[in-house]
Design a protein that fits this description.
The structure is a single chain. With 190 residues, the chain is mainly α. 84% of the residues lie in helices and 0% in strands. Helix 1 crosses helix 2. The protein is elongated and about 70 Å long.
C-alpha cells in the first residue's frame, strides 16, 4: 500500500504543484475525499473488493496516498521561484526543471510526507485488521480483547510500535542518504 501510494502520490503531487490548472481540478476531488475517515472506507472496500485483506490494503493505501500527495504538493509549491527563472535563463528543458529543480527542491517534503504516510498506514492497518481481517496484529489484538488476554494485547501494541518506529527510521535513513547535498547546503556536519 505504501509503495503504491508513493508511486501514484508523488507524481500527482508534483503535477499539482507544477500546474495551476491541474491543481485546481485535482484539489477539488482531494478536498472531497480526504476528510472521510479511513475506517469509513472499510465497509465500502469490503463490498467492492470482496474480502477483508484487500479492503485493509486499500484503506492503508488511501491514508498513505493523501499524506504523500499533499506533502509533495507543498514541497513543490515551496520551491523558490527564482530557481525556475534561473533554469529558464539557462535554457533548461521541462525535463531538466523536473529533475534538477523540482525533485531536489521537493525531496524534504516528500520524505516528511512518507514518514507521516507510514505512521498513518500503520494506524489504518491495525484498525482495519480489527474490523475486517482474519489475521494480522490488529486481528490478534482484537481477539485478545475478546478473550480478555491483556498480555497479548500489550505485546501486540508493543510490536506495532516497534515496527512503526523501524519503518519510519528506514524512511529517514533513505531520505538522509538521498539528501546529503542538503546537509552540506545548510551547514550540518556529520
Amino acid at each position: 500500500a505504501l509503495f503504491l501510494a508513493l508511486a501514484l502520490g508523488v507524481p500527482l503531487g508534483i503535477l499539482m504543484g507544477w500546474s495551476r490548472k491541474f491543481s485546481d481540478s485535482a484539489s477539488a476531488l482531494l478536498a472531497l475525499l480526504r476528510p472521510v475517515p479511513p475506517l469509513a472506507w472499510v465497509p465500502l472496500a469490503i463490498l467492492i473488493l470482496h474480502g477483508g485483506e484487500a479492503a485493509v490494503i486499500f484503506v492503508c493505501f488511501l491514508v498513505a496516498f493523501f499524506a504523500t500527495v499533499l506533502n509533495t504538493h507543498v514541497g513543490v509549491k515551496s520551491i523558490d521561484p527564482d530557481y525556475f527563472r534561473a533554469a529558464a535563463c539557462l535554457g533548461a528543458s521541462r525535463k531538466d526543471v523536473l529533475f534538477d529543480v523540482i525533485l531536489p527542491g521537493a525531496l524534504p517534503n516528500i520524505f516528511t510526507g512518507l514518514q507521516i504516510a507510514m505512521g498513518a498506514a500503520w494506524f489504518a492497518l491495525a484498525a482495519g485488521e480489527m474490523i475486517a481481517a482474519q489475521y494480522g496484529l490488529g486481528f490478534l489484538i482484537m481477539e485478545a480483547y475478546n478473550l480478555v488476554q491483556t498480555p497479548t494485547i500489550v505485546i501486540g501494541m508493543a510490536t506495532l510500535g516497534i515496527l512503526g518506529y523501524i519503518s519510519s527510521a528506514i524512511i529517514r535513513l533513505v531520505g538522509n542518504r538521498l539528501m546529503r547535498w542538503r546537509e552540506e547546503a545548510i551547514g550540518v556536519k556529520r
